[in-house]
Amino acid sequence: MKKIFLTSSLALLFLTSCLLFAPKAESTPEPIPPTAPPPTQSPSDRSIYKDGLVPEYQGILNELPYASIYDIKFNISDDMYHITGSETVIYTNAEDVELKEVKFRLFPNILGGDMHVDEVFVNEEVIIPNYTLNDSLLTVPLKNPIQPGESVTLKMNFKITVPQSVELNYGVQAYYDNVLALAHAYPMIPAYDDEGWNAEIPPQSGDVTYADMSFFIITVEAPKDVVLVGSGREISHKDTGSRQTVRYEAGPVRDFYLAASSDYEVVSKEVNGITIRFYYLNNSQEGAESALDVAARSMEVYGKRYVPYPYSELDFVSTPTLALGIEYPGMIAITNWIVQPDNSYLEATIAHEVGHQWFYNLVGNDQLDDPWLDESLTQFATLQYFTDEYGQSGNDSYRLDMEDRWNSIGREEIPVGLPVRAYTDVEYSGIVYGRGGLFFEALREEMGSDNFDAFLKEYVKINSWGVATPEKLQVQAEKNCACDLTPLFEKWIFP
Ligand SMILES: [Zn+2]
């Protein structure tokens, strides 16, 4: 995500003062098995995902044996903000301990909306789950714990009420100005790591998810007149009366995002066999075209410097979000008002959000505990884009943007490596988006450019599809420079 001060503090003001929930749906007296169609994917057959990946990445389909397999149906009502759905997920225990429960995040309950799940079917047996973290964490106790390598099938129905305001959550989940933005709007299994099930109430200034690579088949039923845009690749489309049914495949990805509006128009472009599209609003075709141009050039820069972009598509959507842009796997939301060819935020926002396809999606991280691994590194990637495109003047101008952020908090030497919750809103911008980006310049100076370039390429390659940690980053850098970087990391990163 990329924010500017004005919008983020505004959003914060509203977030703290008017977070409210719609009333809960009545619970169903008799367990009704989810109405989801039986899973259409066999866990061992991933051929449906092949065309969503560029050829050099298709081999990943033979790997990731533990990735969760989601089959989700969203039914979007004619009013566009009431949604019912069902989910079947095959979860495999990738840990070396038995798991006595499986957890799901219900993000609408902490993003200003409402999400309700009645009961969960575990291998066809009904289980009443319990709720914690302001109803944003649903825990399913298992009668038979799942052993390492074993799988369990969980099914549930859900109901969502989407807020009709962008002030509650930057508009990541909102139906506003005739645009439906639907982020993290399904029961999502959080990452399990050395902390166990890794879930907390996300601080309001950062991104909210931390999840592993998964495979998704998504069926969306919605009014026929809206243009639907989802992560991954559309695999079928059928119109019935006033409604339409669209299916998507997406995987391996860390999340599924959907946007919808009857106002969307689209421009597209091909880059090295990848289709990039921009769904824009209000006649902003020219802005959308310049955005696609920046997207294409930044994908080339990152592809050359790190590793190629993995998917066969990348979709941009204009939304009324209060952030400048928000990243999702294979999709990017850009706030509508900057989609103008002469807008001074457009190029940096596009280059930044495209950078997240490498640092957040391809290389995952705990976005709440280690936000610098995605945000600071993406700021640095953006600096590399401006440098490679415009030489020294490009480097100077983007460097100044990061300097300005750090200057705004008096260049305080607050560590870059703190969790989001440890920063105030302005510190988060000044340190994670400012000082953190500058750290990577200091690191390059310390290591030497050739070692540094080799390190960053290797770091991305080794951690692709997995989850990186600060320790992995430091170890890789030290390997490439054959030097001790502890003093530098202690000066900049670690408390
Ligand atoms: Zn960002």
Helix content: 25-40%
* Shape category: globular
What Rg, in angstroms, do the CA atoms define?
22 Å
SS-based structural class?
Answer: alpha+beta
Q: For this structure, what is the CATH homologous superfamily of the largest domain?
A: tricorn interacting facor f3 domain
Give the termini distance in whole angstroms. Answer: 24 Å
List keywords for this structure.
five-stranded mixed sheet, Neutral Protease, domain 2, alpha+beta, Immunoglobulin-like, 495 residues
Characterization of the model:
- The chain has 495 residues and is an alpha+beta fold.
- The protein has 3 domains: 5-260, Sandwich (Immunoglobulin-like), CATH 2.60.40.1730; 265-355, Orthogonal Bundle (Neutral Protease, domain 2); 371-492, Neutral Protease, domain 2, CATH 1.10.390.
- It has 8 helices and 22 strands.
- The longest helix is centred in the C-terminal third of the chain and has 37 residues, at 371-407.
- The radius of gyration is 22 Å and the shape is globular.
- It starts with a helix and ends with a helix.
- It binds zinc ion (ZN).
- Zinc ion binds at residues 1-2, 352, 356, 375, 378.
Question: What is the structure about, briefly put?
Answer:
The chain has helices at 5-17, 285-305, 346-355, 371-407, 425-447, 449-463, 470-481, 486-492; strands spanning 68-76, 82-92, 99-105, 114-122, 125-127, 130-132, 137-146, 151-161, 173-176, 179-183, 192-193, 196-197, 214-223, 227-230, 233-240, 243-253, 257-261, 265-271, 274-280, 313-319, 325-328, 331-335.
